[in-house]
Structures are given as structure tokens and as C-alpha cells.
Amino acid sequence: MHLSIKNLSKTYGNGVKALIDVNLEIPIGMFGLLGPNGAGKSTLMRTIATLQEPDTGSVTLGDIDVLKQKEEVRKILGYLPQEFGVYPKVTAEELLDHVAVLKGVINGRERRDLVQALLQKTNLYAHRKKNLGGFSGGMKQRFGIAQALISEPKLIIVDEPTAGLDPAERNRFLNLLSEIGENTVVILSTHIVDDVKELCTQMAIIHHGEVLLTGNPMDSIRGIEGKIWSKSVPKEELDSYKENFNVISERLIAGTPEIHVYSDTKPGEGFINEFSDLEDVYFSKIKQSAEAVATPQL
Amino acid sequence: MFEFIKFEVKYRLNRPVTYIYFAILLVLAFISTSTDIVMAGGSGGKVMENAPVALAAIMGAFSIFGIFIISAVMGVPVLRDFEHKTSSMIFTTPVRKFNYLGGKFLGSLIITILIMSGLLWGAMLGQVLPWPWHDYTDKLMPFSFMAYWSPFSVFIIPNILILSAVFFSGGTLGKRMVVVYAQGIILFMGYLVAGEFLSELDNKNMAALIDPFGFGALEVTTQYWTVAEQNTLLFDFSGIILQNRLIWLGVGLLSLVFTFFRFSYSISDGGGRKKKKAGEDSDIHMVIPQINQLFGFKAQLTQILSLSKFYLKWLVKQGPFLFIALAGMILVFVIAFLSGTSGYDVELHMTSSRAVRMIVGAFSLFFVIIVVFYTGEIVWKERDIKMNLIYDALPHPNFVVLASKFIGMVLMSVILLALLMLCGIVIQVIKGYTFIEWNIYFTTLFVDTLALMTLYIILGLFIQTIVNHKFLGFGLMFVFYVSFIVFDELGIEHSMFYFARASLGQYSEMNQYGHYFTPFSWFNVYWFGLAGVFYAMAILMAVRGLDTRFRIRINLGGLRLNKQAFISIVSAIAVFILSGAFIFYNTNVVNEYRNSDDQKARQADYERQLKQFEFLNQPKITDTYVEVDIFPEIRDFTASGYYILRNKSDEPISEIHIQRSPDFQVITELNFDRDNELKEQFHEFFYDIYELSQPLAPDSVLKLDFTVDFRTKGFRESGSNTDVIYNGTFFNNTQYFPGIGYYSQFELSDDDDREDNDLEVTERMLERDDPRGIAQSLFGDDADKIQFEIIVGTDSSQIAIAPGYLQRHWKEGDRSYYHYKMDTPMVNFYSVVSADYEIIRDRWIPPSDTLPEVNLEIYYHKGHDYNTDRMLQGMKESLSYYTLNFSPFQFRQLRIMEFPRYRTFAQSFANTVPFSEGIGFIQNIKTDDVDLPFYVTAHEVAHQWWGHQVTEAGVKGNAMLSETLSQYSALMVMKKNYPPEIIKEFLRHELNSYLTGRTFERKKEMPLEFVEGQGYIHYRKGSLVMYALQDYVGEDSINAALRRFVKDWGFKEAPYPTSADLIEYYRKVTPDSLQYIIDDMFRYITLFENKTTDSYYEEIEEDQYKVTLTVDAIKYRADSLGTETEIPLQDWIDIGVFAEDEDGEDKLLYLQKHKIAQRENTFEILVNEKPLKAGIDPINKLIDRNPGDNVKDLELKEDTI
Q1: What are phi and psi of B718, to 5 degrees?
Q2: In the CATH hierarchy, which fold is given to the domain comprising A29-53+67-213?
Q3: Any CB–CB contact under 8 A between A178 and chain B?
Q4: What is the complex's ipTM, to 2 decimals?
Q5: DSSP type of residue B1188
């Protein structure tokens, strides 16, 4: 099983170009889709999840034409949307059972066992009789993954699953994800670089609807090794640094800005060569893309 | 606060749906004043379309449907913040709660008022704009802003405020739209209950108060407004309207205050408190078991089953459902225990059919509303709770979820119906009627009503899916409902165009569902075929995922259209078309279908072409012999017989005009006993002109043989024949047997109809002194009196009855034959009745030996013997009173026969009284009720004198002879047999019916002596006038006059008597001082406004009390439209003083007529018992629009010195 996305484009009614000629080959395993908010990740995910129609392009999963044979895709799909709600007055057990029925788990005993197992697995067993209206964000998210795992999906799509979770919840959630079987295509979209770093064997960076990079996270990091320089700068000089150097990211460390600059050579006095990180890959790619957009081509 | 108002207003102004709502109301109101499509509130006739009353009714009706608009706008402003999770943002800003809520409320209110003002503008534009189809200017008065503004400001604006406040409160505190709908339904229920109460005299004021929309108050305020008043009077905040508005505005205000205090200004969205969970130790490394996914047909069935349960549980678990069900059950109980159901507020026995009728009657619209709102909710459920993305990516086919939602809704309906059925049964048992007919509950609730609800569920699913906007969907459902009115106007009346229309007809215990069941079933097949198409379309077009653009949905629908879906759609279409074709074949090919316009046009043509023959000299029927064969099981009959026609004129007659029955189910054949030629035939009107070879000389006779063949084939579109049925056949000769010459009853009588058909507006009846009218009786000019003989054959399980005495009865195979013959001449009006009857027999022994005994018989449906004793008693008492006071009874036998309740009257034929199931057989008469069966019996028996002994002329005022006199006679018999309170109760209803009846007058109110078939005058006013007359002049004197009248005019042929003749007899027994009352009562329309303004009493000495009372008296004359003019008083009017007897009932201490000659009068009256109340005309003998203020409680005047 292998997911292949070819020339996928989508423009919304209001003119926003959500996807521009996206081509991706996604093998079995955990695939990270990294990009800032509004990059087009969700559009891409929903298109793969049969919920949205692209303007052009094709998506195939093995032999299945995702855009046409929606039912076939749905049979082997586990999908956790970025935002979702639940029946507030229904218990976790009931709703999971309900979804399982819709997923074709018809045998009552099988379904009961499955639901129990999933509740155990997602650590919700203790709350199975509780109305979903009373669930915390993390519990709800785990419920979300529980429903996505019903019936051994061959394709799992999780859209921004860790947004809004506290660190402990996030860890628990990522552990859960990493447990997912090996012959499954798992696409994890996120804007949190660490998610990808910790979990994924393959990744793509997407920004403004375009794929900026694909590959193995480690290879990508190697590609920029030695080119990332950091320096703490006074606040008032920040702007001038930004003008003069290729600043890809900035952050505050104990109240003082620290900038990361992408450069083949040491950009100047006081810069320290950093261990490059996936985050630097991400920011440098986005920076490049932003410049490409900002600078009209001659 | 202003910021919030601005935000809210801007938000709404940016939403297209705001304008759509406005446009819908604008257009509806526009249509109602610019065309005559919509006529509400009794407009029509002489009430103008832009009369304030008519506008109030139109705006009111639309504003009730406006509930959904107001709920959509007012329910959501705060809710929206929660749903979009913006509330946390707002609540953390330093905005005060008051400003937030106030701003939200006021902003939405402004928008709501703007939207609802569409009604006002639309209605005004409708009148002002010079549209080309504005061709009925006689229906409009000159434009007056106030005529529009007054109903809008008094009813609509307060309604907006009330509903807005309540819905805002529900949406804000309940945080769910269903809460708002539940509120809407409860308010609507208030309106329904009020409607029920309005029909009962004692509960009118309560009805006026409990109706949240104020229409009960409107109804009570305008109940006696005459046509002239309806056109001119405006509404203002006073009286009962003010009280109602204050109560409900108070409710609105309270709910706002409550909202303010209860509204929790924090982010928690009502969900459970977040508990920090303690150590979780479940096994997260557990292996997920292997399962099998199944997707076949069997799997889908299991899915549907399981999901239906899930949705049903969700629907029923909703607070609002329980609330609605509970409220509905309470409503049923309220109606069952508080509202009367038949004339004179007499209750019917709580049979199963009545219990069911009560439930369905109060609920049919309500059911549809529940269904409409819940389909909206359920279709949108996943999207509302934002679970749709998960849902849509699951591998179920669309039809599984849609089918489950559908089944869930149907099961919810079943539960609701079952609860209501339970209520019905409990009520039956409490009311002591333990005969539970399960089949009626089953058929009406779980076949008829459930089918209707199911169809609307599918329609709702369909519209919500296709439109893909919840509130717009509701709006469309409403427009869909209203569009029927437009259909109607376009002359599209066939039920095949009215979604879900299929009627089980009225349930009659005699005939059960009868012949209605077949068309009902076919129409349901037809509608379910269409619903199947809707359902399939909904499945194909259902939104799945995020693309809602129509083009994409159509593409996706194409992808979903697999072989199965295709076959389903094609078969649904096939069912729809084939059943439609079958229905059409039955209604339009086998039977004749005409919409009402065509029918009227045909009537107009009849008049245009044939009226020339109206007074043609024709021979009269003198003998009738006929053999009728009824086949109840196939609803056919044949009749063959002859008429003997005699030329009673001085001229020879060469042309005979025959009117055959125009009913398309009838084939008539005619054969004269001499040479003739069919000279001309008007096929369309079944009118033949025969020329005799030898003219019929004066005083000579001819014989006309005829056969009538009545066949029932298939079923009709509507107006199915209820004369010839499985059990309870009842028809009379004028309906099916050939008549002589032009039949003026076919003419259009309504002025509007006549104008629409370019006919001159004419008088409704011949003038009182028209010799042509005096020469014919009320039964028409075909005959004077006839010799009559009939043989009726019917199925052996039934008994057949016709006027005359039974000569012979025999059986042949499975048929029974009855041979009746009347031995004296009788009027040319006879009935044929056949049903499976039980019989009660009795005898009336006359007071004098010289008179023959009279056999009394009552033929009734098995089980309907509740009141047969009362009827027997009524027959005996009536025969005694009438024989003693008027003249001897002319027959040796008198029979009452029950017929099904499709028609609710009793009718007097010679020695025969067919009597409807609905107006006497199943009433549950209690001691303080008007004894309806007794009264109706007495009235019909009186017709044996007034109508059969004295037959009046066919001119204006004639009903004063038959109907008014029968009312008088019945009243006198009742007076003799019942206490005065019952008579008072009876007269109170008569007064109400008269005063209400005149407000619906479409042409002109006539004085009694010129009454033109106006029931509210000849029955209702007739009772009041005659009761007063005998009170003023004396019962004996009136009876003496009537005795002379019968003596002079009884058993006579032309010339027939008129009201002028009768009034002369009254005058002769009336003293000079009271001659003026004859004018007041018969010649003019006279009304009084009597009122006691001040009253007190003093104790002069022991057992001596002096009552002092000040009374106002005003006397009016009204013209034909009800415009009143005050006239000087010179009248004798009752002054009365009451005490209380041991039982707490009123007891008269003093009642005397005093001459009253001025407006204000003071009386001092001495009584020797402690008085309680006193007043002018205390027993309401005079016609007074405010009878309630005639009597006042007396206060003790203390000596102040």
C-alpha cells in the first residue's frame, strides 16, 4: 500500500490557493506533514480523507482511486480531524460503538471486545461510562484516535492532533501513535516540528499550498549541517540584523532574542555554529519560500 | 452596549437569509391584499380586504408562522458565541453582562422587527400599487394607514416582543436551539388551547387571556362586530386585548429578567465540570483484537437497526421531546375536560372515535411542526456538534445514515402517538366510557396520522438536504405549505397536487371508515412513491465532506448513482406515476372532476341559458309511485316509478320541461304515456324539453314513467357521495329524481361568485308579495301536495324506511322489501333511508279519545341508545303540546331514524325524521345541560305542523313560518319540561349565535319578516324574538293566534302564506300598548344596550328591603350592514331583583316590566327578602350585545348619618 498524490491543486471560492500542484509519494510508515497554520495541510488531508474535491490532480492509494472510489477508501481509513465535536450526552463507549457500527463492525461480540480494547489502549477505559460532554481536551483527542483506529485502517490521517495538549498529554498521545501497526500509511500533519522529529520516517514541508521539501527528517537535517548560526542580539538591534542577515527564526531566551541565521559561512562576529535541527530545516525552507513570494522575479 | 447592538445588526444585515425572510413576509402580505387569493378573518362578502379586522387576521396568521423566523433570529445571538467559541473572548473583556445581553437582545430585536415589518409594507403596497390584476376595487376601501398600523401595532409588535424575549431567554440559557423550538411549540399550544376554548361560551374570556398571540382576545373583542364595524373600527390597547398584552408582555419581561440573573457570565459552556483524573492504569499496550468488517446488504441492515436505535435514543432523550410530549398530553387532557364539543356546549360521549378526533384535531398541524423542526435538527446533527468530518469519512453508504435518521424520527412519532393514545384511553376510562375501540386508535393514529408525519419527515429530510441551510429549509417548508393557497387560487384543487393529502374522511360509528378507505390508501401509495423519489434524491445529494457547492454535489451524486440506487429511484417513480395514473383514472375518467371555478361557471351557464324557463307554466306532480332498490355493499341504487302530472292552470300545456339529476353518477330515463317529441335537450345541464303531440288540457293529467340508475364506480377526488353508503344510506327525492322545469337552487347565490361569472347581483329570494312566489310552496313549484307510495328494497341486513305507513314487508333471498304508502296528501319531499338498525317502539296516547294513537319508533345504530328515551319523551311532550295548543297531529305514526354524521342536521319529512348521529344520539346530557336530543326532536316534530300542516310560500321571510315557529314550539315544550336555568342557557347560546352570525353576513342582514334563508336569523334570532314575544303578550295568546293560523292556512295549496299573514295573527292578540314590539322584532333589526350602572339596598325594617338601582337603556336600529342608529325609547322593559336560594341558585324576588322612556333611569323597589343582585332586563329577553352588564351585585348602603 502506497499513497500517491499527483498534481493536486485546489483554489477556494474566495481565491485562496490552498494547494498548488502538490506531488507526494507516501510510503508505509509514519509520514509527517509539516507546515505553518494555513499552509494547506488540512485541505490536503481532507482531500485524501475523501471529504473534499480538488480542482485537478489525482490521489491513489494502492489500486484505489481516492477521488472516485470514496467508499473503498473509507473502508480502510482512520481519520482524526483537526477539530471535531462529539455528542455531549452520549458516553465514550456508546459513541465508539456507534462509530464501529458505521465502520462495518457488525458482529456485536467482536464490536464489544474491540471497543473495550480501544478504550484500554487509549487509556479511556475508566471513563467509558462518562458522557463525552465532560471530557477534557486530551481525553477527547484520545477518543478521537480510538475511533480512528477502529478496524485496522490501512490509511490513518491525523490532522494537528497535538495542538492544544499539555506536554504530558502530548507525550501520551505520541506514544499511542507510535504503536500503530507497521503496514499502515500514517499521515500526521502538524505545525510542531518535534512531533515529526520524534515520530516520522518521512516528511514533507508544505507552505502556501506548495511542497517545499520531502524526505527523511535526518537527511534533511544533514543537508543544512553547519549552515545554521545563532547569536544573542539586543532587542533594539534585531531589525538591523534581520535586514543584514538571512535570519530564519528568532526566539527569546530569558528575555533576550536569539536569532538563527542560515549561511554557508560564518556570517559575522559573535555567531556560533549551531547543531542543526529539524526546526531549522523547517524555518529555512519557509524563509526561502517567503522570499520567493516577496521578491518579484525578473 | 451600543457596540453589541451595532455588531448584531451588522451581522444580520450581512446575512442573505435576513432579506429572504423579509421578502417572504412581504410577498405573502402583498399577495393577500393585492389579490383575492388569501381571504382571512371572514373578509369576503361585504367585509373589505383592507378592513382592520381582515388585516389583523392576515398578519396574525402569517405572524404565527413567523415563529420560526423569530426563533431563528432571537434564539441564536448568545448561542452563536458559544458555538463559535467566541464567548470566552468576550467574557474576558471588561464588558458588563448587562451590556452584552442587552446589546445582543436589542440588536436582534431591531432586526426581527424590521423583518416582520415586511407584513406591514407588503400589505400596504398590495393596496397602493396599481397592479393590473387589481380588478376588484369593490373589495377595498380607500387607503388608510391606521387600518394597517392598528393591527400591526396592537398585535404584531407586542407578539414580536413577547416571542423575542422568550426565545432569547431560551436560546441564551438553554444553549440549544431545540429549547427554543420547544418554547415555540408551547406558545403555539397556548394558541391551540385558546382556539378550543373559544368555541365554548363560558370559556371565551379565559381563551382571550391564555393565547400568547392575542388572537383569542381579538376574537372576543370582535365577536359581535357587524360588517360595518369590521370595516371601520380600529384596535387599541383596551379591554381584554390590553389585559392579554399585559400578561404576555409581562411573561416576556420576566423571562428577560430571569435570563439576566441566571446567565452565567463565564466560559463554561454548560458541560460537566472538569475533574482532574487520577492515576489511569489501563493497559495501553493491549493488542487490539482482529475484527471483520462487513459491508454487504445484511451488514447495512444491521447498521440501520443499530443506528436507528441510536438516533431514537438521542431524539427521545432530548429534554424538549419529553417536554413536548408532556405538554401535548396535558393539552389533550385540558381539551377533554374543559371544552364542549357540540351545540349548546353539550358534551359528546367519549367514544374512541371522539377521543381520537380530539387528539388529531388539536395536533395535526402541531405534528407537522414537530416533524419539520426535528428533521432540521437531525439532518444537521453531526454538523451542529462538529462531528461531521469523522462521520463523513466513515465507510457507510449515505442511505444507511439517512434511513436510520428517518426510522428514528418515525419511531419517535410512534412513541408520541402511543403516548397520546394512552391519554385517549385514560380519558375514556375516566369519563366512564370503557368501550375502547382499538381499531379506531390504530387506523386513525397509526395509519392516517403516522402516514402524514412520515411523509413530512421525508419531505423535511429532502428539503434540508437539498437546501443545505437549516433555517432556510424551515422557511421553504413554510413556503411549501403556503404554496397550496396559491395552487388553490389557480384553480388547481385536485388532491394529487397537495402533498400528503389523503383523507380518511369523518369517522362514523354507523358507516365506520366506509368508502373513504380505498381512496385514502391509493393516495398514500401515490405520496409514498413521491416520497421515495425525494428520499433517493436526498441520498444522492447529501452533503458529505466539506464541498457544499451544488455543482460538486451533483457530480458526487452521479458517483453515488449505482445500479441499486438507480433501480430504487426508477421504482419509486414508477409507483408514483402508476398510482397517480390509477387515481386519475378513478377521479377524472370513471368519475367526473370539476374544480370549484368550473363548477361555478357551469352553474352560471345554467342560469344564463335556462332561467328563461323559470316560471314557465308546467303541470304539477299529484301522485308519485316509485320502487327503489338499494345495494348498499356496492353503493348503487335504482329507482323506477311514475309521476302523475296535472295541468292545474287555465292554459293548455304543450311543452314539458324535465330536469334530470345532474349528478354524473345518475342515468335517468323518461317515458310519457302519450306521443311526444324531444324538442330540445341541454346535455350539459341534463335538461330536456318534450313537446306533446296533444297539448295537455287544463285539469287533465298525464303519466310520466321514469327510471333512475345510480352507480358508484371507483372513487372520487373529493366530495365523495355520502348519501348512498355501506351502512346509513339517506337521500331525498330532490337530489336524484327528475324534477319539473328550471331548478333555481342551482343558481349561484354568493355575490362574489356571481360577479366573477359576470352575472348580475340579484336578490337571494323572491319578494314577499311576488305572486309567483306565493303560488309555490317552499318545497318548490314541482308540486303542491302529492299522493305517495313507495317500495324500497335493500340488503336483508338493513331496514329501509320512507314516508308513509308500512303496507307490507317481505324477503326475497338476501333482500328485504318494504312497501310504504301515505294515505293523505303530503308535500313533495320524501326521504329514503337504509341501515342496519335497532328499533325502539312506543305509543303516544292523545288527550282526547277522538284522536288516534300515534306509533312512535326510533331506528338507531346499535349502542346509540344513550338518548333515545329523551327523544321518545321529546316526541310525546311535543305531540301533546302541539296537539293541545295548535291542532291535532295529522299522522298515526312518527319515526326517527339515525343517519351517519357526515351531515349534522335532522330533517322532518311526513311522519319521518332522519336525525344525524352527530347531533343527538351520542351526546352525554347532564342535568344542567340543554337537552339537545329533546330540543332537536321537539323542533323536528314541530315541523310536522310548521311546514307539513302549514306549508309556506317560496318568498322572503318564509322561514319565519317554518323554522322560527318550530324554534318557538320547541322552546315552549322545553319551558314546560325543564327549569328556567336551562331555558336561560339555551337563549344565551341563541343570542351568541345570532350576534356572531350577523358578523359573518356576506350580503345583508334582513329583518326577521324578510329573512332570506339566514339561519342565524330564522333560528337564533327567531328563538329570542319568539320567547320575548310570548313573554310580553302571553304564551296562551300567541298559541291562540297560531291555532287560528293553522285553522286558516293548514292543509292548503296555493296561495301559500307569508310572514305578512302570520304577523297579522300576532297583531290581533297583542295589546295596543305593545304593538311596537311587533315592529321591533319583525320589521326592523333592533338592539338594546341595557346596563345597570349603580345598585344598592337598604334594610328598612325586618324583612323589608329597599333596592335602588340606576340603569342605562339605549335602543338602536341597525341597517343591513350593522350600522346602528339610536332611536328614542318608549319601551316596557323588565326590572328584576334576585336573591339566592338554599342551593346557591338565583331566585327571583321581583320581576316587573317598567316603562322606560329615557337613557338614564332610577328605580326603587321593595322586597321582603335579603336581595343579592338586581338589574334591567335581567333574563336577557331583549337582544343586547353586552348581556353580561344588565345585572349588578347589590351593595348594602349603611346609614351614614
Answers
A1: -155, 180
A2: Rossmann fold (3.40.50)
A3: no
A4: 0.88
A5: G
